[in-house]
Amino acid sequence: MWDKDSKVENWSDVDPTWPKEKVKLFGAGTDSGTFDFFTEVINGKSGQSRTSYQPTEDDNVTVNGVAKDKFALGYFGLAYYEENKEKLGIVSVAKKEGDKFVSPNEATVMDKTYSPLSRPLYIYVKKSSLKRPEVQDFMTFFLRRNDLISQAKYIKMDALMQADEQEKLAKAIKEAGQ
Predict the structure, then answer these.
(1) In the 8-state DSSP scheme, what is residue 48?
(2) Which of 13, 70, 92, 141 is 20 to 30 Å from 158 by CA-CA measure?
């Protein structure tokens, strides 16, 4: 459906028993990491997304477009769904035909059963920037305050991952100081 060569225009093109209603698609704009990730996972490679959809960098456009049309479909991060779940439905996925369908939530993202449509988010820091105390302080704060990630409706790191990332940061700070 999302492939650039897709012939799907109506839901009946997906399954002949479904309504002959136009599929209205919404998703991330091409400058988005979400777009890149989704395209590669769903279509198998970058640059393979159809252009006949409503691209946007504003998730509100997707939320409102999908909420207003029962034949619309869109994608964005789980955090944004959680904030708007009273007006949206969610799509469960199966890794392959015959597998159990899994809905996204904190547990299925953490245990990687909501795969392949979950991904980690990263903050990248140039090593030379770690010589600056304010950068060190920010990164230390970020990795210590896992509770703020939850407040922002993202899925926080488990304790093992958090400790591992803190160790990596400490090592990088030490190396930057040399």
Answers:
(1) -
(2) 92
**Whole domain around residue 21: which residue ranges?**
11-88
Please name the residue ranges forming H helices in the chain: 11-14, 33-43, 59-67, 78-84, 106-110, 133-144, 146-151, 159-176
Asked if residue 28 is part of any domain, the answer here is yes
The domain tally of the chain equals 2
- pTM, rounded to two decimals: 0.80
| Integer Cα distance of 55 and 30 in angstroms | 7
With respect to residue 95, please indicate whether it lies within any of the assigned structural domains.
Answer: no
Convert the pLDDT of each residue in 66-87 to its tens digit: 999 999 999 998 988 989 999 9
If phi over 0 gives left and psi between -120 and 50 gives alpha, with beta otherwise, what is residue 112?
Answer: left
